[in-house]
């Protein structure tokens, strides 16, 4: 009788233990992976890059390398990239110039483009604690240009969109900082006979910010703003690829 009672109890205990052990292993398996060592966020486009076929003969691929201004373009004016299958958007929101430089091998060179548009500097300025200078931003841009020369990619540098104030940094002299950076990039482009894509002039208002009808927050363009950017972008690309 005792044995008859003991066996069911033993089986029940074993079953509970097995379920607990499985649950523990499952919980361990779904622990969020730590990507703190991927500071440049290379994983962002890693899978997409693997699915991207090599350029076909005669294809003139152009990569858009930047931060949120480029990343949001795909959703706020998607028809632009749908109409230009050779334009590859590789913008990641919030990124600064050294992160773009770290991504350059994977998100530009490996994609074998004919040209790359490099839009850098605003996030460096916006998040500065006093250590970021135009020289440091420009040094990263210069390194990307040098990589372009080695791999026969035509670099297109950008005068950044006008920003009067960052919503998250009230009182910060954004307009003056953007103008100063644009002057440095423009001078470097002129000295080295590089193509300059001017996003500043066609968007600016009388307060040195983006016109209210062309932006959602004073920093990022809306669809109307992107349409204006599209026109000057196509003109710069045509010059780069001729």
TrEMBL record:
Signal sequence region: 1-18
Presence of the UniProt keyword Signal in the record: yes
Ranges for domain SGNH hydrolase-type esterase: 71-228
Keyword terms: Signal
Domain of life assignment: Bacteria
PANTHER family, sorted: SGNH HYDROLASE-TYPE ESTERASE DOMAIN-CONTAINING PROTEIN, THIOESTERASE 1/PROTEASE 1/LYSOPHOSPHOLIPASE L1
Protein name: Acylhydrolase
């Amino acid at each position: 009788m005792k044995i008859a009672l003991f066996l069911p109890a033993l089986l029940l205990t074993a079953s509970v233990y097995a379920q607990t052990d499985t649950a523990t292993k499952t919980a361990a398996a779904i622990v969020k992976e730590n990507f703190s060592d991927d500071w440049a966020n290379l994983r962002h486009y890693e899978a997409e890059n693997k699915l991207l076929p090599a350029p076909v003969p005669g294809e003139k691929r152009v990569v858009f390398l930047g931060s949120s201004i480029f990343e949001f373009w795909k959703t706020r004016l998607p028809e632009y990239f749908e109409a230009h299958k050779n334009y590859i958007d590789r913008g990641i929101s919030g990124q600064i110039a050294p992160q773009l430089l770290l991504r350059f091998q994977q998100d530009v060179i490996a994609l074998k483009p004919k040209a790359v548009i490099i839009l850098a500097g605003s996030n460096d300025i916006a998040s500065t604690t006093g250590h970021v200078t135009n020289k440091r931003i420009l040094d990263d841009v210069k390194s990307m240009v040098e990589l372009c020369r080695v791999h026969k990619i035509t670099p297109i540098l950008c005068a950044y969109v006008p920003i009067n104030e960052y919503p998250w940094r009230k009182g910060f002299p954004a307009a003056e900082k953007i103008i100063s950076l644009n002057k440095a990039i423009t001078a470097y482009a002129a000295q080295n006979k590089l193509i300059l894509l001017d996003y500043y002039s066609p968007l600016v208002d009388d307060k040195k910010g983006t016109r209210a009808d062309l932006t959602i927050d004073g920093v990022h363009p809306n669809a109307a703003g992107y349409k204006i950017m599209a026109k000057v972008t196509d003109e710069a690309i045509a010059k780069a690829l001729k």
